[in-house]
Amino acid sequence: MKPNQCFGKTKLPPRNNCGRPQLHPSVCEASISSSISQPGPEYERRARGPANSAGCVVNLSDRPSLCMSLMGGQAAIGSSDHAVYTVDVPSGKFRKALYGGRKGHTEWVTCITHLPDGRILSGGMDSKLCLWDRAGSSCIDLLAHTASISNVKVPSNGFLALSSSYDKSILLWDLTPHKGNKPSSKPIASLRGHKAPVMAIAVSSICTQNSLNNIASGCRDGSVILWDACTASIVLDHKQTHTGHVTALECLGCADGSGPDVFLSGGQDGILQVWDVKLDILSTKMYYTVRLRDKEHYLAFAYPSTLHLTRF
């Protein structure tokens, strides 16, 4: 796509009094020079780079690694050799391989995440979710999907997990630990509405330990659906929002609700879409480089030959 053809027939967002584009009337645009504070110690530390620029190599397998989750000083890596490996990040030392015997995956491990208490949830091409204990010595099989697992998500402040699959469904799991009892191996809700395999999911950052507010999901036909997790119903269904697969979904906001409840979706078409949940609308389309500063609620994006910064 040529730079001057970037937007094609898509209209640029309306302009505010400063002459800069705005997402909607309640959003204020500002230039980077006037909106970003001067670099502080954290910026300077990052600019210097790591103390050991060479890093270290941890050999885990002769097969490709497919996914990774970080929590504290631990990295959990899912591999195409059907195993999950844990590594101590500060020391760069291998910890354990979660695989073998009757436990674990029998196919590629395609997605992985940590729970707040240190347990690990992994999904694979074997249609199975594995919930590993903190020691990695045993796991619970969560069997409800009928095709490869594409994604798993767990909010940082709770034990409700989401899984998406090529079977076109999203399942909600309650993985709350119960003293002396195992968590339920059956999903508590099923979200069905996609006509193609679900490739990406995101959870609203505004949620509590025992409930979720909004869920976004995207599939291979380019459609994005916003769900009400409390009622398992569709709030917004945009058909073929992206050309090609929806490849990524994230939520921009703060858990205390002080920031915006905004979802970002990326696709094979190279477009980043911004979804304002409170307004139930697709706010705008953005191309090229995107940078997020979550704590300060900045969204920087580039139109052809210009760079703009939005503060929510």
UniProtKB/TrEMBL annotation:
Q: Which domain of life is it from?
A: Eukaryota
Q: Name one Pfam family in it.
A: WD40
Q: Which residues form a coiled coil?
A: none
InterPro entries, per the entry? WD40/YVTN_repeat-like_dom_sf, WD40_PAC1, WD40_repeat_CS, WD40_repeat_dom_sf, WD40_rpt
Residue windows of the WD repeats:
102-133, 142-175, 191-237
PROSITE patterns named among the record's database cross-references: WD_REPEATS_1, WD_REPEATS_2, WD_REPEATS_REGION
Keyword tags: Repeat, WD repeat
PANTHER family in the cross-refs: F-BOX AND WD-40 DOMAIN PROTEIN 7, WD40 REPEAT PROTEIN
Please identify the protein, giving its name as recorded. Uncharacterized protein
Instruction: List the source organism.
Output: Ceratopteris richardii (Triangle waterfern)
